Amino acid sequence: MNPRTVVVTGAGRGIGRAIALELAHHGFDVIGTVRSDESGAALESAVARTGAAVRTVLLDVADPTSCVRGFTRIATMTGGGPWAVVNNAGFAQPGAVEDVDDEQVRRQLETNLVAPARIARLVLPAMRDRGSGRIVNVSSIAGRVSLPMLGWYCASKRGLESVTDALRMETAPFGVKVTLIEPGSYGTGIWRTGAELLPDERASAYTEQYAAAGRRLRGARELPGPRPVAMAVRRALTARHPLPRYLVGGGARSTAVLDAVTPTAASDLAKQLATGLRGAPPRVTRAVARLRGR
Ligand SMILES: NC(=O)c1ccc[n+]([C@@H]2O[C@H](COP(=O)([O-])OP(=O)(O)OC[C@H]3O[C@@H](n4cnc5c(N)ncnc54)[C@H](OP(=O)(O)O)[C@@H]3O)[C@@H](O)[C@H]2O)c1
């Protein structure tokens, strides 16, 4: 086993691709999982263009059979299993809690919460035998702070945080270190995919909010690129004593602090205003109009 072999799930694009590039450039032996041959070829050539290399394996994290097959192959490729796994693959299911049906809820939880635990189960025995290994789970600021119109995504990430905290304590005595990465907002395909997954606004009580959410999701292209997240993952893999969690980005840090110190009623109101669930109170509207008039 190469002591620096790292598997990155969902490495074909977005944050996963940035992580694969960052790690490959810093001497890690990277195996990126992808869902299609085209995606694998695109990743391999993107990394090759920068003078590094990555190997790819086909794997759908939401499919248990595919996970077993993929990690069996990875065990063969690595002579017993990887040193580390970065559970990055995921998506954000938008919509009011009542508008997301059971099947969509299961898909969200299966991909973002159940899959990282399943993958941990597949790699832990070999890590334990070796007395070393690392698992890095990519969560989100949404794992700490719940937002309206993203309730099920937040639930999947809050659940991932809970499971990861338990796993960290359980595996530490065996030399396996477990870390959470909590990014703020970065410009990746997650927003476009989210816009495509918005519930049917005609059959909903939240028509206006979905129209606004669609505009916000499509406007997310102006967000910064995901390299800071990749750098945080690298820190989690190279630190002798990695932190239990890495908040990534000024937005994530300030949101976490503000949410912790603001009374729930006040933060609820701010989030409702931001998502168009409430208009500003008349006093605030008048004050803003006065300020604009100056
Ligand atoms: N972007 C942000 O602002 C942000 C913030 C906080 C947390 N995150 C988290 O970062 C992670 C990566 O998201 P991203 O922003 O990079 O989104 P993205 O650009 O949409 O990329 C998502 C990646 O996950 C893969 N994926 C999705 N479902 C999968 C499945 N069932 N099996 C295997 N792979 C699957 C996708 O593969 P395909 O190419 O085959 O679809 C793709 O490679 C997610 O866990 C997300 O929750 C993102």
Layout of secondary structure:
Elements: E1 5-8, H1 14-25, E2 29-34, H2 37-49, E3 55-58, H3 64-78, E4 84-87, H4 102-130, E5 133-138, H5 151-171, E6 176-183, H6 190-196, H7 207-218, H8 227-238, E7 245-248, H9 250-261, H10 264-274, H11 282-293
Helix pairs in contact: 1-8, 3-4, 4-5, 6-7
Which strand order does the major sheet show? 3-2-1-4-5-6-7
Contiguous helical run count:
11
Structural class: alpha/beta
Please write the CATH class name of the largest domain: Alpha Beta
Helix % is 40-55%
Care to describe what's here?
By secondary structure, the protein is of the alpha/beta class. The protein folds into 2 domains: 5-249, Rossmann fold; 262-294, no CATH class. Helices cover 53% and strands 12% of the residues. It contains 11 helices and 7 strands. It has helices at 14-25, 37-49, 64-78, 102-130, 151-171, 190-196, 207-218, 227-238, 250-261, 264-274, 282-293; strands at 5-8, 29-34, 55-58, 84-87, 133-138, 176-183, 245-248. A 7-stranded parallel β-sheet has the order 3-2-1-4-5-6-7, with helices on both faces. The longest helix has 29 residues, at 102-130. The radius of gyration is 20 Å and the shape is elongated. The model has no long low-confidence stretch (mean pLDDT 95). Bound molecules: NADP nicotinamide-adenine-dinucleotide phosphate. The site of NADP nicotinamide-adenine-dinucleotide phosphate (NAP) has 27 residues, from helix 1 and helix 6.
